[in-house]
């Protein structure tokens, strides 16, 4: 199957969302309300050491619960794209289908993301320390910041792109464990990284318009983006299925 262009994938996304925008928007609002509720009731107030530790734990719990909800959106949008039954309750899919795999993938990606940031963190620390004691000029320090920042950004983008399909695969392949899901995402994304980046960069304009609308237009923009990325995933898996069938 010929791989779709950005315009074609967006057209498929708009078609898949036809008549389903209210469900998509409702799921988005429900997720926001749940997130706001968790922030309001799970984050302790105060600045003591014990409360600071509880706050960190609470943020981690909220983070993982929110990611489980966002993965549920992938389930909802896959059903949109395939013309299957879709309902807002599907955003809770990951809570009852091996949530440990979602948590392990998330933890692994966060750990890998931290490793990606190490060049910037280490170079920045030593460059700043050297500048403070007079061993480096300000321009050299700024250059070290910039170069190390670009290296870390490139590594982070590589990580993000390589494993971008892991949560879609998690829904379609319950037989795979979390490491296999990461490996399969890496396999199907090989050679498609720039296409994925270009697709998501194409949304910058309407995202800015969404922000300028006081966020109201984001109720339309975000489902459109998720649906387009869902179509990208289906385009990838269809093309790989065709290639495997020929081999």
Question: Please, could you describe this protein's structure?
Answer:
It is a single chain. It is globular, with a radius of gyration of 21 Å. The chain has helices spanning 6-17, 21-42, 49-82, 99-132, 138-162, 166-172, 178-189, 193-201, 204-212, 218-246. The chain has a domain at 17-97. Helices cover 78% and strands 0% of the residues. It is mainly alpha-helical and 247 residues long. It is built from ten helices and no strands.
**Structural class assignment:** mainly alpha
Number of strands: 0
Q: Please, how many helices? A: 10
Compute the CA-based radius of gyration.
Answer: 21 Å
The unreliable regions are 242-247
**First and last CA, distance:** 14 Å
Helix residue percentage: over 70%
Largest sheet: none
Topology as a string of helices (H) and strands (E)? HHHHHHHHHH
Query: So what's the overall shape?
Result: globular
Question: What kind of oligomer do you see?
Answer: single chain
Query: What share of residues are in beta strands?
Result: under 5%
Task: Note the topology.
Blueprint: H1 6-17, H2 21-42, H3 49-82, H4 99-132, H5 138-162, H6 166-172, H7 178-189, H8 193-201, H9 204-212, H10 218-246
Helix pairs in contact: 1-10, 2-3, 2-10, 3-4, 3-10, 4-5, 4-7, 6-7, 9-10
Task: Briefly say what this structure is.
This protein has helices spanning 6-17, 21-42, 49-82, 99-132, 138-162, 166-172, 178-189, 193-201, 204-212, 218-246. The protein is an all-alpha fold and 247 residues long. The radius of gyration is 21 Å and the shape is globular.
């Amino acid at each position: 199957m010929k791989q779709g262009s950005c315009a074609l994938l967006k057209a498929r996304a708009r078609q898949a969302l036809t008549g389903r925008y209210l469900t998509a928007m409702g799921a988005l609002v429900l997720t926001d309300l749940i997130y706001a509720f968790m922030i309001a009731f799970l984050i302790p107030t105060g600045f003591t050491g014990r409360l600071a530790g509880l706050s960190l734990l609470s943020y981690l719990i909220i983070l993982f619960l929110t990611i489980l909800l966002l993965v549920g959106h992938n389930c909802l949008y896959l059903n949109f794209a395939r013309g299957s039954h879709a309902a807002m309750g599907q955003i809770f899919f990951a809570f009852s289908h091996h949530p440990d795999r979602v948590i392990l993938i998330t933890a692994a990606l966060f750990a890998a993301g931290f490793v990606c940031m190490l060049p910037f963190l280490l170079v920045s620390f030593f460059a700043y320390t050297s500048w403070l004691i007079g061993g480096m000029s300000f321009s050299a320090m700024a250059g070290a910041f910039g170069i190390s920042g670009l290296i870390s950004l490139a590594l982070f983008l590589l990580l993000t792109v390589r494993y971008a399909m892991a949560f879609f695969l998690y829904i379609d392949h319950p037989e795979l464990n979390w490491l296999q899901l990461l490996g399969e995402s890496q396999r199907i994304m090989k050679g498609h990284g720039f296409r994925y980046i270009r697709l998501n960069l194409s949304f910058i304009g309407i995202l800015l318009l969404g922000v300028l609308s006081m966020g109201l237009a984001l109720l339309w923009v975000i489902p459109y983006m998720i649906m387009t990325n869902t179509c990208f995933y289906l385009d990838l898996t269809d093309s790989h299925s065709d290639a495997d069938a020929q081999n």
